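can u do me a favor
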């Protein structure tokens, strides 16, 4: 009798289309709101940096957010490595500072710069270490603080959330313009 082997390995990578990273981002934002994600990340960061305090939310919600952020980081890496920048450029226009958030004007006009800059400074493993450490420290009461500078990865994650949302909005707008 012939043995049939089941392949349990992930088939990510070569077999997927060009917009795989954007599809992962769309899925992330279907399940998580932009402002809620930023607030959740902010509260996790605040409680992780406070001594002798613990986040009051249900740990399952925090761990679900942790998993969602890990997939978001991987999607950002795919976007930074594989996407073409000409697809998401917008014509130069005057932008109000309230719309920019943490993004510079250059990053607003080309959001892929945010992902490229983040992944030149930090690897996926370093972002995983950051988010895992923050979740770990926010869920318990500890006397010690993180041993590394955790502000820079936090700022990169906030910027990546803004840039990903901006990319998806532009993709929707381009699709609507093509349909008309």
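np, heres the sequence
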């Amino acid at each position: 009798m012939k043995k049939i082997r089941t392949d349990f390995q992930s088939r990510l990578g070569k077999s997927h289309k060009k917009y795989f990273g954007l599809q992962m981002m769309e899925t992330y934002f279907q399940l998580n709101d932009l402002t809620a994600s930023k607030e959740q990340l902010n509260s996790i960061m605040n409680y992780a940096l406070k001594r002798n305090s613990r986040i009051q939310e249900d740990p399952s919600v925090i761990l679900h957010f942790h998993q969602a952020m890990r997939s978001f980081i991987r999607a950002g890496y795919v976007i930074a490595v594989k996407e073409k920048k000409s697809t998401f450029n917008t014509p130069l226009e005057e932008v109000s500072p309230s719309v920019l958030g943490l993004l510079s004007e250059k990053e607003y006009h080309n959001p892929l710069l945010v992902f490229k800059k983040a992944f030149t400074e930090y690897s996926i493993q370093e972002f995983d270490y950051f988010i895992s450490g923050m979740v770990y420290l926010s869920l318990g009461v500890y006397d010690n603080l993180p041993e590394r500078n955790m502000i820079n990865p936090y700022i990169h994650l906030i910027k990546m959330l803004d840039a990903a949302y901006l990319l998806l909005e532009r993709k929707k707008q381009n699709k609507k313009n093509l349909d008309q």
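The helical segments are 20-31, 34-49, 59-82, 97-100, 105-109, 112-121, 124-139, 151-179. hope that helps!!
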